[in-house]
């Protein structure tokens, strides 16, 4: 029996596939590669010494999705695939509703047709909008502040309704806080297209020489040093959270949702200082205006996942920074082959 991983060639998806394979599960990747690289599949196979079947299709191609289910014995689905850039969603909301919602509806319809009713859904802490208090627990008020977050909220509501209509479904929504870091081998990592929206890939691109300076978006927040505070979680901890969710879905039906965070908040300056210290690099930065829509502080109350899933983040901030930098050093241009003579040359790149 296989686990179908939509968006399995993406940042969190690829790390989760490695964890699934290392736990002896069979994995099928379904990805349109619009924001990922087919090289990732080869890396996953090399790292796990396992063959990975993958399909390069758009989830909105319902017939193609139908064929994947017809041609494979699928036990469960982990649904990562979706557009995820907050700023882009504000500029082009229709493309987010079209892509994230229609593809999910088609996936769910095909799952129902083939009686596949175990689903882990990649949700996000953005469903909490502007939290009224921290730490943020799962019963906190839900309110999206952008179209991307609204697609996550709408999908969670769809899944809740599906379970209410048919209690044979086993559904878990995982609300990620801020995933950073990379697999310790340096073979997988975050490789955003264009200018990184998120903090850590921007930092690693400054460190590798691809970008001259980090812009810190505001230092006037009511936080320890005025810069934004977030709950950063190692992507390998996040991957393991999906394994725990899947194991639970094998035993019980239901509709559940859990925060995946460490419960600790770090400021932007703390991230920069830690990254510089543990990696012996310098990250030049300038303080600019706050980014529109940014909230001052967000970090999780992680107790529900500990009691409900038996999952707790294990890796600390130093490990996140060391692993993120190893990935970028080994892959100065990410997964793409184009060389950039201005970048630091990576050491002898070796698969480990
Ligand atoms: C973190 C902090 C910025 C970049 C986003 C998405 C959310 C989720 C995680 C998918 C903030 C500051 C950032 C930079 C900076 N993704 N920053 N300079 O905004 O908490 O959440 O990613 O689910 O949906 O909204 O993460 O990494 O963009 O920002 O100063 O160049 O770093 O202001 O305080 P965010 P982020």
Automatic annotation (TrEMBL):
Subunit structure comment from the entry? Homodimer.
Gene Ontology terms describing biological process: galactose metabolic process
Q: What is this protein called?
A: UDP-glucose 4-epimerase
- What are the boundaries of the region Disordered? 332-352
Any one cellular-component term (Gene Ontology): cytosol
What pathway is this protein said to act in by its record?
Carbohydrate metabolism; galactose metabolism
Give its E.C. classification number.
5.1.3.2
Against SUPFAM superfamilies, the record matches this protein to: NAD(P)-binding Rossmann-fold domains
For this chain, the family text in UniProt reads:
Belongs to the NAD(P)-dependent epimerase/dehydratase family.
Which Gene3D superfamilies does UniProt cross-reference here? NAD(P)-binding Rossmann-like Domain, UDP-galactose 4-epimerase, domain 1
Gene name, Swiss-Prot/TrEMBL: galE
What is the protein's species of origin? Cytobacillus kochii
